[in-house]
Amino acid sequence: MSLLRARAHAKVNLGLRVLGRRADGYHELRTTLQTISLADTISFEPAEDISLQVTGPYPVPAGDDNLVLRAARLLARELPGHGARILLEKRIPPGSGLGGGSSDAAVTLMGLARLWEAALEPHRLDALARQLGSDVPFFLYGGTCLAVGRGEEILPLPDLPAWPILVAWPGEGLSTAEIYATLPESLTRQRILSSMKGFVPPPPGGTGEAAEPPDLTNDLETTAIRRLPALERLRERLVAGGAQAVAMSGSGSAVFGLFPGESRLERLAASLSAAGAHVFACHLVPRETYRGTLFERS
Ligand code: C5P
Questions:
Q1: How far is 154 from 139, CA to CA, in rounded Å?
Q2: What values do phi and psi take at 256, rounded to 5?
Q3: Has 126 been annotated as catalytic?
């Protein structure tokens, strides 16, 4: 049988608010998640056992902690008697807040269900995805989504247009667990949020006017900048380079800017790259495009 190739897109958080620390130790969030065109590629081939090989500019260990292997083994427990040879090409930097590992995990669940010709109900896939990490369920949807709870409760929103976005990564990752563990008390004490205003981006324009950029406040940003001051300078350069809105993604350490057009973005990409940042010139990926281009067989 044939090879199944998949695209595992990165995400950015278009704003992230921390509402308090929960009894289970996780933090209650409100965040808008958005898929972007930067993607890992994963290929799946039927085999006796499950195996993983990793290549690409950001190779991560292919050991038991790898989210692709964890997802494959979790699914194989539901669907015994199947195996796969998996090749992961890592193009999304790890420890960047761009959700690469989570996306790989979600795409592995969906890809292996296809490869093994198993019709899993969406709620079964969602239940498996939640076990693998807070950001994993989002990648079963893609596009623009509101995420609440610890980030795993997903509400698909009307898609934003395929805006140009420049993502810049300083070359050093941050640990999500460490960022959450060192948040100031003002963010972790229990609070109740009475308004959803600011979390829901405006619907795509249609009037010909430029759509208002969403509120991109990220409550994790101050803590991340304290650990990695280079983020502040990257941020300033995105603002000075003409970005309409600038923010950090997730718990960092990637920052990004939304741009009104390609030309400024490309100029800034060249100068940030010359200054040593890892730079990704991308666009937002709406849900229909995401769903329609996830898999191809060859
Ligand atoms: O769910 P995931 O394994 O991706 O989360 C990684 C770590 O980030 C958790 O172990 C937890 O320390 C922290 N986290 C949190 N609150 C969230 C999501 C993650 O405290 N909503």
A1: 10
A2: -145, 160
A3: no
